[in-house]
Fold:
Amino acid sequence: MNLNDPFIYAGANELDDKSILNFYIKSNEYEKILSKKNIFVIGQRGSGKSMILKYNTLSLQLMQSKNIIPDVIGIYVPCNRPYFRKQEYMLLESTYEKAIVSEHFLVLSIAKQLINTLSSHRTTLLTENDMIEIADELNFLFDIECDANNCLTQMRRYLTKKFKEMQELLLTNPEKLKINALSFGTLIFPIIEMINNCDKLNNKHVTFLIDDAQQLNQMQMQTLNTWVSYRDNSLLSFKIAITGKEEYLFHTETENSIMENHDFLEILLEENMFGNKADFNKFAKEVVRKRLELVQFKITDPNKYFTADKDITKELQIIKQNYIEGKYPESKNFTHEQRRKNASKIHRAIYFREILSKHKANKPKKIYTGFDTITGISTGVIRNLLIMCSEMYSRDTEHFELKSKNKPPQIRTSTQYGAILDLSKKKWMDLKTIDRRVTNCSKEDAEKLHLFFENFGNMLLEKILNPESTEKRILSFYITDTQINKSYTQEINKLFSIAKQDGYLYTRLGPDKSGGKTVWYTPNRLLWPNLGLDPLGENGRFSLGITTVKSMFETKVSSTKFQDGGLFNVI
Structure:
């Protein structure tokens, strides 16, 4: 990959193996992926799920070990491929037959990835005697005519043919599908047993790295969960990446639930996203540091390369000290000791209140600088972080090349806040045309979403401008009373699903007031600089009633209504 721009964002599927090795940051979860347990990797789009899975593929492991075969052999299986989205099963009326066909397409897709991997690394993995045994086994099991030299190629052709045959069968003679359909037991498991008997692969463990499993159809999810529920991990296991629990079904073909710590483990990539000490903040620093080191920059500390504006830093320190001394309305009900403890949490909010209370032209531009700010605006998604860094780098590269033809020694603060404000403005403009990018999104849906985020911004504005407010830096929410009106809930879920697909909303499961679990929603924080708001919030949540949320999609609500009507609560 060309490193003219060290921050250029590319998904793991766009990177070659060498680039993945260069960019990958090992985490505490690294050893879990290489274990023999079933694991769900959960994180939003752009959070690094594919990078984790691809890093642990056999190809990458062999590159690192100089062709020493690992104990756990990773087979990458992407679900965002056309052969995973076969819709022919919808032609059938019987649920049982639909399940059979869905599993057939699923196992063919997985088997194809497995055979492709074996073929790519044949000389490393398989001896000549192994190839003879494999040819005999494939001839016996699948009635394909092959020999030691072409058995893997012939098996790949056999799988492709089975795809074609099933499609034609469904269109012409679907009653025969029970005879022709393949299953995990008749296709995947026999191949696993076959390669486990090979000299170099004896007692090796195969793990299928299933990426974007939320894109499987419901029956394929149930089938995959059924395999997970077997819990016999002696020969194989599954590492399954999904964007969120609410987008995936966790029950089997027999409607039994699979459970964490019993059937599988979890890796939550966004468990701790926000704040200076958050996991994402630490991870983001390592990502940027490594990229700066790869291009051999003199400055490799992200906090120094993306430095904060010094004048703003001084202003914030003055506000913090004035708050401790009781000079602001926000401090009147607290003791000196309480103010000293609260100062670090409240001083930014006071800065924003004072700026926003003045003329609109005095938006707090220069405060949108520094690596911590860039990380906070990223909303816990590494893709968002790199897009901002790349835009800043590109602007300063152009500036410095005009002067000295050198690369930027560090990113100027003026470039940082200029890029952030422009990207924030563009984010709002793109929201108006979200219907052009997301399937099943109408122009009316786009208008509703724009209005909702505008209303939510007004809510945040009211919290900052109100000196009596004790919580000013909460940027997320969850919805209550969803059982009261299920039609509202269905409509809202549809709109939020559209927002999630285009990166305007992020979700994860968290506790609610009753002690149960609920969905927590975090709007993309890049929206807030355009409104002059603070994108660095605490990890608390608003609770919004379902009728309030619906009204926010339909009517523009002024910030005073949020205050006077008591439409939200803080937790």
In short: The chain has 22 helices and ten strands. The radius of gyration is 27 Å.
